[in-house]
TrEMBL record:
It comes from the Bacteria. PROSITE patterns: ABC_TRANSPORTER_1 (PS00211), ABC_TRANSPORTER_2 (PS50893). This is ABC transporter ATP-binding protein. Keywords: ATP-binding, Cell inner membrane, Cell membrane, Membrane, Nucleotide-binding, Translocase, Transport. GO terms for cellular component: plasma membrane. GO terms for biological process: peptide transport. It is a peripheral membrane protein. Coiled coil: none annotated.
Length: 322
């Protein structure tokens, strides 16, 4: 359904090198699949999400590569063709989606605006559809008469998800949709989203820095570091079978709820500056298993039995240096 091929994004700078936030990313998402995209702050998750949705301003940013939705390359389409595709094939929910609603319009008008632009429905049909969608995200359909400020943050985010689904898209990209909410509300929204995804069979790219949250709902997890996908794995295997030292380090940031004593390790050091050209493996300076080759040669994403990993530990049989 979605194919991303050798996608790179550079935010150009007025002076000096730009920020190469996405560096040659390749992956596919089949129909009806819930994929999580995780990684530390600044690793390029949002940039990748925006690039897939073709939301980056190409006058100011350089986007290279291909994003194919059902075989159609979004970067070959005219602005009108792209507009026709948005909402109906692909929609986006942002963290700021809570504030994405126009404050002076009742919710139902904002739903109707999207519907009017794409489909010919009577007012009664639109109202019925809005009620169904609000019920699907576990909101009282009467909420459609409300103004955005009359809703709590959690309710607004549910409404933003309902709006994203209004034209039954094939792919919904959610960028940190619950990060501003408390953990209980976060959990209930993510569970609701996962149930909806199962029922309506769209695909999800769920961007989050919270690996724990992602593991609860995603079928597959992609781990991003310094603009690249470093590991891609079925979610149920990642805890026991993580290959990449970065994935293992991320997992070390979470407590095992079954353990009687817990020590959290964290990840020493910081991610590299994405303005610079990176030699070798970008994680090498922080990696406890680095080898000589890691300093000079960039590892490529190689397929494993389940998923794929970009790490020299699995391409070269050297003894770790330390
Ligand atoms: N508009 C922009 N102009 C220049 N650089 C940018 C811009 N947006 C993001 N960046 C840079 O691109 C890199 C990737 O940022 P991005 O927002 O994609 O990361 P992220 O993984 O989503 O982080 P977070 O978890 O904090 O949301 C960072 O170094 C960031 O500073
Ligand atoms: Mg982000």
């Amino acid at each position: 359904m979605l194919q991303v091929k050798d996608l790179s994004v550079t935010y150009r700078a007025r002076r000096g090198p730009g920020v190469a936030a996405v560096r040659g990313v390749d992956f596919e998402i089949p129909d009806s699949t819930f994929v999580g995209l995780v990684g530390e702050s600044g690793c390029g998750k949002s940039t990748l999400g925006f690039a897939i949705a073709a939301l980056l301003d190409e006058r100011r940013n350089t986007v290279r590569g291909h994003v194919l939705l059902d075989g159609v390359d979004l970067y070959q389409l005219s602005p009108d063709q792209l507009r026709a595709l948005r909402w109906s094939k692909l929609s986006v929910v942002l963290q700021g989606g809570m504030n994405a609603f126009n404050p002076v319009l009742r919710l139902k008008h904002q739903f109707m605006d999207v519907m009017k632009a794409h489909a010919k429905l009577s007012k009664a049909e639109m109202t019925k559809r809005i009620a169904q969608l609000l019920a699907a995200v576990e909101l009282d359909p009467a909420v459609m008469e409300s103004y955005p400020h009359e809703l709590s943050g959690g309710m607004k985010q549910r409404a933003a998800i309902a709006l994203a689904l209004v034209l039954e898209p094939r792919l919904v990209i959610l960028d940190e949709p619950t990060t501003a909410l408390d953990v209980v509300v976060q959990r209930s929204i993510v569970t609701m989203l996962s149930q909806l995804q199962h029922r309506l069979r769209f695909s999800v790219l769920f961007v989050s820095h919270d690996l724990g949250l992602v593991l609860e709902v995603a079928q597959r997890v992609m781990v991003m570091y310094a603009g690249q996908i470093v590991e891609d794995k079925p979610a149920d295997l990642i805890i026991d079978e993580a290959h990449h030292p970065y994935t293992k380090a991320l997992l070390g940031c979470y407590a095992n709820p079954r353990a009687t004593r817990v020590s959290l390790t964290g990840i020493p050091g910081t991610p590299p500056d994405l303005r610079e050209h990176l030699h070798g493996c970008p994680f090498a300076p922080r990696c406890t298993q680095r080898m000589d080759i890691c300093e000079t040669e960039a590892p490529r994403l190689l397929p494993l039995k389940d998923g794929s990993v970009a790490c020299h530990l699995y391409t070269h049989k050297e003894v770790p240096a330390r």
